Here is the input.
Amino acid sequence: MATGPFSLAAFCFDLFDELLDREGAFAASCALRAVGAPRRDEQDQRGRREHGEARQGVEHSGVPSGRTFSFSSAEPPEQRQQLSALLEFERTARLITHAAPLLIPGSLQSTAYVRAIMTAGGVPPEEVETRIAVRVGRREAIMRKDEPVHLKAAIGEAALRQVVGTPDVMVDQLDHLLQLSDLDNVDVRVVPFQSAWQPALEGIFVLIESDEAPPVVHLENRRSGLFLHEPADIAIYREAAETVFSTALVAAEPKLHIARVRKETKAER
Here is the structure.
């Protein structure tokens, strides 16, 4: 993909080209619908000539020309393509800001923690290992040697204390979190129970900022996902993130807090 600032439309169609080469026309067109991509200009003869079949799928998906907008979908195939789009946004991000009140953010989850979520969450047994591999693969963005993504995470104390799987799984997860927090590009904060009200109590949100595309906010629930990229929405969530982080522990306190919760969890095994 080209570097430097450009429109969401340009980014989405670069994503389209990359997914087309890697996963085929259907996956590419579904991913574009997932992020609410506008149609590429009709004068884009190369796109029409090389990707005609897939582009027809996008053009008949109900996406208005020249607009960007939010999406929601509960269809499993579309969920998979939404995930593909999210992974691509994360891969090309410069900064990812998580507000995570109840669960450890995906990029910071240990393998055992992911497995416990997938198993308890009713994922079909034949899909568990694939989904674990995808979730664990999200760490690559923050752990790669070449320009890793900077990650900021405000994690609620409830996420540290909620036993997902078993106490052993949680001890492993907290160890994993402490290890990742030692990375220069990872900033882990803890929002304690004693903090005042803050917007993360309304639900998890992720602000993704890139040098390759305008910022997006990703929201999710059990059956669907939502991308927001209108400037007014970005401004609201950027302010919300600042509020959340203003209530979080600072300096060495987050690591000390995580270590204390780890010790208490281990004692309860």
